[in-house]
Design a protein that fits this description.
The structure holds 2 protein chains of 2 kinds. Chain A has no helices and 11 strands. By secondary structure, chain A is mainly β. In chain A, strands 2, 4, 5, 6, 9, 10 and 11 form a 7-stranded mixed sheet that branches. Chain A is globular and about 40 Å long. Chain B is mainly β. Chain B is built from no helices and 11 strands. In chain B, β6 and β7 form a beta hairpin. Chain B is globular, with a radius of gyration of 13 Å. The chains are: A mainly beta, B mainly beta. Chains A and B meet through β5, β9 and β10 of A and β4, β5 and β10 of B.
């Protein structure tokens, strides 16, 4: 199994909603990542988890709250988002000590 | 300040010919470089990588060349196939420790039959 699975594929939420994005991998990878990609822009790193601990937070606003409940799962909790947060949110995983990350299909988020 | 740049937003190549995608970087601390391919509505797919201790890495039709002194790398695809049509991202990392990837802006490759 070389897949990173993200759910949902599409999400529309209001600015007062609370929602969560989910990511799952069963490759035994102990590093997991959240990236954000705006249209016609490259992916930008948001968070890195290493051995289920948050190791990098790229100055992301607190309305985005990551969680790594176990070595296979990564969540991104969303609350009080703004329309400019609309983007493709990509999850990735890799072996710790290896930069070759495997990406999921992404969740297309629209904030209305 | 973009640390990884792909100056060609798009490239069109005839099937069977060579595709050359270019990438420049400014951070001299980068020592590991990767190319990703992305189809619409999909996540990026890892293609090939190169460590700064090498100047060339080859995998089938794909070859990546690294010129450290010029802070430049390129991806060669030979022969190009219509299925290669996608957006190609160059990415760089300061160490091969599973840390952050910095992506270039991407080049859209179109391979015409």
């Amino acid at each position: 199994d070389t897949e990173v699975t993200q759910t949902p594929k599409h999400l529309v939420m209001g600015m007062t909603n609370k929602k969560s994005l989910k990511c799952e991998q069963h490759m035994g990878h102990r590093a997991m990542y959240w990236y954000k990609q705006k249209a016609k822009k490259p992916p930008e790193l948001m968070f890195v988890y290493s051995y289920e601990k948050l190791s990098i937070n790229e100055s992301v606003p607190s309305r985005f709250s990551p969680e790594c409940p176990n070595s296979s799962l990564l969540n991104l909790h969303l609350h009080a988002l703004q329309p400019e947060d609309s983007a493709l949110y990509l999850c990735a995983s890799s072996q710790v000590g290896n930069t070759e990350a495997f990406f999921g299909q992404g969740t297309r988020l629209t904030v209305v | 300040d973009q640390q990884v740049k792909q100056n060609s937003p798009s490239l069109s190549v005839q099937e069977g010919r060579i595709s050359i995608l270019n990438c420049d970087y400014t951070n001299s601390m980068f020592d590991y470089f990767l190319w990703y391919k992305k189809y619409p509505a999909e996540g990026p797919t890892f293609l090939i990588s190169i460590s700064s201790i090498k100047d060339k890495n080859e995998d089938g039709r794909f070859t990546v060349f690294l010129n450290k002194s010029a802070k430049h790398l390129s991806l060669h695809i030979v022969p190009s196939q219509p299925g290669d049509s996608a957006v190609y991202f160059c990415a760089a990392s300061e160490d091969n420790a599973g840390n952050m990837l910095t992506f270039g802006g991407g080049t859209r490759l179109m391979v015409k039959p």
